[in-house]
Structures are given as structure tokens and as C-alpha cells.
Amino acid sequence: MNRTLVICKPDAVERGLVGEILGRFERKGLRLVAAELRLIDEQLAGRHYEEHAGKPFYGELVTFITRSPSLLLVVEGPPDTWQMVRTMMGATNPADAPPGTIRGDLGNTLSENLVHGSDSAESAAREIGIFFPALVAGGH
Q1: DSSP string of the chain, one letter each residue
Q2: CB atoms within 10 A of CB 125
Q3: Torsion-angle region of residue 127: left (phi > 0), alpha (psi -120 to 50) or beta?
Q4: Domain membership flag for residue 27
Q5: Is residue 11 part of a domain?
Q6: 51 in a structural domain
Q7: Which residues span the domain enclosing 85?
Q8: CATH code for position 95
Q9: Apex 89 CA angle, 84 and 94, nearest 5
Q10: Residue 104 main-chain phi, psi, to 5 deg
Q11: Which pLDDT does position 136 carry in this prediction?
């Protein structure tokens, strides 16, 4: 099972880009396992961003991700699906992301960079457990 978590962040939802983003993953051959449009509350945001707690930008991360709904996705594909998704996303700063990537084509700013993707297989398992616990418990 090679699954990873993707979050189309509030700016992607607000700008009407989730269809484009999801379409890119589907055209790549990744299969959608779960999806939910959800307002992420502060408690969930805190669990998701726990490795950044105490860093100067932590408050901004939480404020941004909780400001309006995000589309949460679990996608499945070949080995290292998480790495494929990260490559498709492009560099965190859209100014550094090459054309052809989500952030390179659609992103505007570092603080609002459209998407999150798990940064390792271990992170993917942890993050899927936070947002889609039934997938971990049920194994579906």
C-alpha cells in the first residue's frame, strides 16, 4: 500500500483550483482513495504541524490552514507515491518551483502555496491517521 496525504489548502479551495490539482494527480495515474472538504480546526492543525510547534512561523501555519475549508485527499500509487506527489507539487516557494509543477504553474506566495504533501512514507502514515483514522484502522 503506497498511499500519501495531500491537502489542497484554503487558498487552493478559495481560488477554485482543487479540480485542476486533483486532475493532475489522476492524469499521473494516482488513484483517489479518500477525499473530504473539511474545515481543519486548531486541534487538528496542531497535531498535523506538531514538528513546527515553537518555531516562529507556527502561528501563521495554523491561522492559514484553519481560515477556510481545505480538500483533504489520500492518493495511492506506485512505490514512493509520496515522493511522486512532492515532485509534482514543486518547491515550497512557488518562485523556486519549476514550470509544470503545481506550485510553479499556479502558486503565488510562499505562505499560501496551495498544497501539502507528506514528506516521507512515515509522515504519510502518521498524517493519514490524523485526518482519515478509519483508513488506518480499517485498512481500506
Answers
A1: --EEEEEE-HHHHHTT-HHHHHHHHHHTTPEEEEEEEE---HHHHHHHTGGGTTSTTHHHHHHHHTSS-EEEEEEE-STTHHHHHHHHH--SSGGGSPTTSHHHHH---SS--SEEE-SSHHHHHHHHHHH-HHHHHH--
A2: 16
A3: alpha
A4: yes
A5: yes
A6: no
A7: 3-38+70-138
A8: 3.30.70.141
A9: 150
A10: -65, -35
A11: 84
Which residue in 5, 137, 16, 111 sits closest to 58, CA to CA?
111
Domain count of the fold of the chain = 1
Q: Is 52 a catalytic residue?
A: no
Mean predicted confidence (pLDDT) in 70-89:
97
One of 48, 52, 116, 140 is an active-site residue; which one? 116
Whether the predicted model's global pTM rises above the 0.85 cut = yes
Identity of the amino acid at 70: S
Residue 24 lies in a domain: yes
| Residues 94, 1: Cα–Cα separation, whole Å | 30
CA dist 25 and 23 (Å) reads: 5
What is the overall mean pLDDT for the chain? 95
State the pairing for strand pair 31-38/3-8. unpaired
Q: Which residues pair with 115 in a beta bridge?
A: 8
